[in-house]
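Worked example

This section walks through a single chain of length 415. The input is the sequence exactly as stored; nothing has been trimmed or padded.
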Amino acid sequence: MRGVTVWKRLLGVDDRTVIDGLEWDHAADALVAHVRPRRPTKRRCGRCEQPAVGYDQGDGRRRWRTLDLGTTRAVLEADAPRVVCREHGVTVAAVPWARHGAGFTRGFEDQVAWLACQASKSAITQVMRVAWRTVGAIIARVVAERGADRDPLEGLRRIGIDEISHRKGQRYLTVVVDHDTGRLVWARPGRDEATVEAFFDDLGDDRAAALRLISTDAGSWITNVVDRRARNAIRCMDPFHVVAWVTDALDEVRRQTWNDARRAGQKTMAKQLKGARYALWKNPEDLTAHQEAKLADIAATNRRLYRAYLLKEQLRQVFRQKTPEAAIGLLDRWLAWASRSRLPAFVKAARSIRRHKTRIYASVVHGLSNARVESVNTRIRLLTRVAFGFHSPHALIALAMLHLGGLCPPLPGRN
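Given that input, the structure is written out below as tokens.
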């Protein structure tokens, strides 16, 4: 094997690159490889890689950090002329070893992106010897390039739309998940109708018409746009949010009962209700012995609150029925019971459920919920802690697409 071939392998460049020489830079404490593109790859736009006319020599020679050779830093050095592209105007010419606008080689950036899916923040910065904000910029470039190679919105049939808070101060992301693959396919900062409209603009009218099922919560900022832009799709109400309404109603009854007991001077009952929150909230199969005893005391001494607890549990059973017919029948009976329960919080919850009854029925019939979306949201919440320091929602979105959208590149040198 010729020496130049060995050096190409070590430096992570291919046959489109010519190595003119090597030297040691004592100031940078790094090996410097002087390189240039082969003639067929010269004078191409750095953005679209189409042939372009030369403009000038730019700012002279520049360097790109490549993967370390063992424990030794290594960089590539080459001229960085500018060209005139018909589409992008004056821009730096493309080089085969790096992405446009990067100070690192493709292999270096791919390894950083791969490590971002596997390792901790401190491990990445120490192993690769880069700042964490630099990692965010690298991930954004890798995701932009790999996302351009394939369209994550192609072939969508069943999707879920939801929002997630990513920073304090009401900072939200709107996310879209493919129910069939479980992948995150789209995310954008914002939590309003304009953000959802942006998703359907990216999707296009033809692909929106091909959607069959869409799961959402009751937020009008989602449902209004879905009704306008995806008329062929069946809208499904997420059962988790339906149960959450009733759980909130149960907690309202508990607080009201506690306040009534406190005002009436019933200190023993008030103390009992003060610690009963989790006994009422939790699923019966998850109760501790102490919580079971507390629930039994409530059943014996406070029928009004216990009736609210039974209403909450019966609604949970609606979504556990084995057949859609049984679930729909139980939901209709639950609505009748809640409406005459003489519990204002449950009467209000029943009215909300009736408004969305068609979408709840659809969720039961098609067995669709936002569970996959909530799973993705939970993992994004973990990523927000990892991404702290990026100071940009777009860098967080790129990290999420890398982890959850199937855009993570392989390690350099592996297929």
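What to look for: Residues 104-238+372-415 form a domain with the Nucleotidyltransferase; domain 5 fold (CATH 3.30.420.10).
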